[in-house]
Amino acid sequence: MAETITLEIARYSPEQDTAPHFQSFEVPVNKEWVVLDALNHIKDKQDGTLTYRWSCRMGICGSCGMMVNGEPKLTCATFLTDYARQGKKIRVEPLRYFPVVRDLVTELTDFLAKLKKAKLWLIHPNQPPLSDGEFLQTPTQVDRYKQYAMCINCTLCYAACPVVGLDPIFVGPAALALAQRYNMDSRDQGSGDRLAVLAHPDGVWGCTFVGECTRVCPKHVDPAGAIQQYKLTAVLEWLKSFVTPRGAGKHDG
Amino acid sequence: MTAEAKPTAARYTEFHPRWYRPNVSVYWWMGQRQYLKFILRELSSVFVAIFVVETLFMLSALKGGPQAYADFQNTMASSLMIALNVICFLFVLFHTITWFNLAPSAMPVRLGGKRVSAFLVAAPSYVAWIVISAGVYWLVTSWSLT
């Protein structure tokens, strides 16, 4: 295995460039180094202007998502040795389909607006007083939504989804999976409130089931599965609207 | 005297004008194997539709009598139609297998509080496919013998 590896990193300076270009750096291949370690090495030793996001280094915060050789990856969980063994260079780019602020930093305003649009919080209009104690859940009730609750908003699924690129107003995999997380929570009564956003051409019906979001998800959330399952819910709600035209699906938790 | 805020010509823009916004190429599906597989899966619907249209033509020919059916058979025996049908058949196989394999993702079956494995959800579709195909084969061959 080579002692060093070449990283081709996308550079973009909004003050100087009209489009990103690649810059190569040689970094040592240490057995336990991930791509993020290599970026930190470059920033510390070679070029302090390199700009990227990172925080926890352990796949929790979801900040360090980038395109690594064309694949959306958490760079804190992508080992250099996997590429060095095959004699490959590593090409690092900002996550696909997002506007680029600088170098490897993407703009997330639109993504955050989508999370808000899908009302990703517990909606409980008939909330009992605090004196009544906690909302207890059985392990079975937790199991229903736990998989979707593992989402860390790393946006890898957005970078993997061609629909996000082709239709920027598509709500997108993470927001739809998280909506399902709240819909399936026994404490939530907001599924009716989320229906208008989810059962919409830009909601679940925008998804063509490419399935890449599920494949790249570092937390095994399975957004594609969540979206397909919600399509059935949306159809049932639509049928229900014929039986109960007024207020169908409103606060039905 | 306090200075009053003067209206300025500057306008708040929600998005920074200097962000680099990459365009999505028309050929986005050619760069990655998974995307190509997805496009082929979607395209396979066209070939499924061709099979359906052929079946409708066959039924129409059957209704038209022995001569019409013989004409239909002659048309279908041409090398062009055989080549088209081979391509259609391969795409229909691809269509069936890819959608059957996606079924467990769209249909989480739970038994006793636990999620049934993807294999057990997909397997009945394959079994039904084989049984129905065998039934159709038996029907066609036993009819053609009588």
How are the secondary structure elements laid out?
The complex is a heterodimer of chains A (253) and B (146).
Chain A lengths: L3 E8 L9 E8 L6 H12 L18 E4 L2 E4 L5 H5 L5 E4 L6 E3 L2 E2 L2 H9 L21 H11 L6 H5 L1 H5 L6 H11 L7 H8 L13 H5 L6 H21 L10
Parallel strand pairs in A: 1-5
Antiparallel strand pairs in A: 1-2, 3-4, 3-5, 6-7
Chain B lengths: L32 H32 L1 H11 L2 H28 L3 E2 L2 E2 L2 H28 L1
Antiparallel strand pairs in B: 1-2
Query: Radius of gyration of chain A, Cα only, in angstroms?
Result: 21 Å
The helix-and-strand class of chain B reads mainly alpha
Radius of gyration of chain B: 28 Å
- Give the strand order, joined by hyphens, for the main sheet of chain A: 2-1-5-3-4
Spatial separation of the terminal alpha carbons of chain A: 57 Å
Low-confidence stretches of chain A: 248-253
Q: What is the helical fraction of chain A, as a range of percent?
A: 25-40%
What is the H-and-E element order of chain B? HHHEEH
The CATH architecture category of the largest domain in chain A equals Orthogonal Bundle
Molecular structure report:
- Chain A has ten helices and seven strands.
- Chain A is of the alpha+beta class and 253 residues long.
- Chain A folds into two domains: 4-106, Beta-grasp domain (Ubiquitin-like (UB roll), Roll), CATH 3.10.20.30; 109-243, Orthogonal Bundle (Fumarate Reductase Iron-sulfur Protein, Chain B, domain 2).
- In chain A, the strands form two sheets. Chain A has a five-stranded mixed beta sheet with strand order 2-1-5-3-4.
- The longest helix of chain A has 21 residues, at 223-243.
- Chain A starts with a strand and ends in a 10-residue tail after the last helix.
- Residues 248-253 of chain A have low confidence and may be disordered.
- Among the domains of chain B are: 47-102, Fumarate reductase/succinate dehydrogenase, transmembrane subunit (3 helical TM bundles of succinate and fumarate reductases, Up-down Bundle), CATH 1.20.1300; 115-146.
- Chain B is 68% helix and 3% strand.
- Chain B is built from four helices and two strands, in the order H-H-H-E-E-H.
- In chain B, strands 1-2 form a two-stranded antiparallel ribbon.
- The mean pLDDT of chain B is 87.
- Classes of the chains: A alpha+beta (253), B mainly alpha (146).
- Chain A binds chain B through residues 12, 14-15, 17, 19-20, 70, 96-97, 99-101, 107, 109, 140, 143, 162, 165-166, 208-212, 214-215, 222, 224-225, 228-229, 231-232, and chain B through 14-16, 18-22, 24, 28-29, 31-32, 34-35, 38, 42, 102, 105-108, 113.
